[in-house]
Amino acid sequence: MMSIAAQTRDEAIADPAQPLSQAQIEEIKARTATLVAAARARLDALPPQERLSAPPVIWRVPGAGAEFRDCAGCPQMVVIPAGEFTMGSPPAERGAEAQHRVTITTPFAVGKFEITFEEWDACAKDGGCGGHRPSDESWGRGQRPVINISWDDAKAYADWLSRKTGKTYRLLTESEWEYAARAGTTTMFSFGENISPTQANHDGSTDGSGPSDVNRQQTLPVGSFPPNGFGLHDMHGNVAEWVEDCWHVDYTAKAPTDGSAWVEGDCQGRVVRGGSWGDSQEELRSAGRTGGYREDQFDTTGLRVARNL
Predict the structure, then answer these.
(1) Coil, helix or strand for 147?
(2) 212 belongs to a structural domain
(3) Consecutive 10-residue runs of the chain (309 residues): their mean pLDDT?
(4) Do the domain assignments include residue 271?
(5) What pLDDT was estimated at residue 199?
(6) Which domain holds residue 259?
């Protein structure tokens, strides 16, 4: 099989306390386009089955990995490089999802952390988020991830951020979420084939990943665990995260291959990704997926935002 090596990681070019300038964004896009054109020609020459089993390709350019904020109180964002990967999981993986190749040709930004109660409460105080003040279940607010919000609530937060900053904030698509969670890996988790309670907030009492009492039974402040290879925290566990896509039981030939959201069918159900403090390893897998009705509010579910560049 042809080996397609990813580019090496470059130094970030942005101050995380400052927004990215338009010139910086255009430089990232231009350099990415050059790399994508060259790599796609090699990838497109592969037979379909070989392409499916090809390793992930990450088109890293100066600026990939840059961190920034668009305003004081806005979420800290990380620039995610463009790339191509196999979405889903092999048949041998428990809870396996059908595999298909996805190409994301344009870099985008993703929240470094899950949205916190502090960030949510700022939205509600400013007249956004429908004024909704979700319960924290007496676990604490501040830097803990917001919970008890519906998919519609999550959309309202992204809409408020867009109005506040003049930038396009949104929920991640399901394929963007998995690409960002994997961060160039092909293993069950971004940390390997197993994940422990020292790497993520989940119920380690059910899967042999820790002592029987390792079940914190609540959220923890965001960033309590190491980040993945893209610099994102809590992609596995803490709270599950609403994404844009409508719920489908399994992938079919209609599933997008370009990183866009799958919004056909009955969209009363929406996809949730990442697993939570109350879930076992299976739900935390990079390919793991579940869903809920768009109006559902759970103490296990929150959100993470994306932003177009």
Answers:
(1) coil
(2) yes
(3) 34 60 84 76 77 85 87 95 93 85 94 98 96 97 98 98 97 98 96 93 76 82 97 98 96 92 94 96 94 97 97
(4) yes
(5) 94
(6) 22-114+164-307
Per the document, the length of the chain is: 309
pTM metric for this prediction = 0.90
Beta strand ranges found along the chain (DSSP E): 57-59, 67-68, 77-80, 82-87, 100-104, 108-111, 169-171, 240-246, 269-273, 289-293, 301-302, 305-307
Report the half-sphere exposure of 119 (CA within 13 A, side-chain side).
30
For residue 231, give the CATH number of its domain.
Answer: 3.90.1580.10
The token pair at 18 is 């400052």
pLDDT of residue 4: 33
Environment class of 290 (CB within 10 Å of its CB; exposed 0-12, middle 13-18, buried 19+): middle
Tokens found for residue 27: 């430089």
Plot region of 275 (φ>0 → left; ψ -120 to 50 → alpha; else → beta): left
166 and 242 in contact (C-beta within 8 Å)? no
Number of domain units in the chain: 1
Residue 180 lies in a domain: yes
Q: What is the pLDDT of residue 9?
A: 36
Q: Any bridge partners for residue 79, and if so which?
A: 109
93 found inside a domain: yes
Residue 256 DSSP code: -
Strands (DSSP E) found in 261-307:
269-273, 289-293, 301-302, 305-307
pLDDT at 3: 30
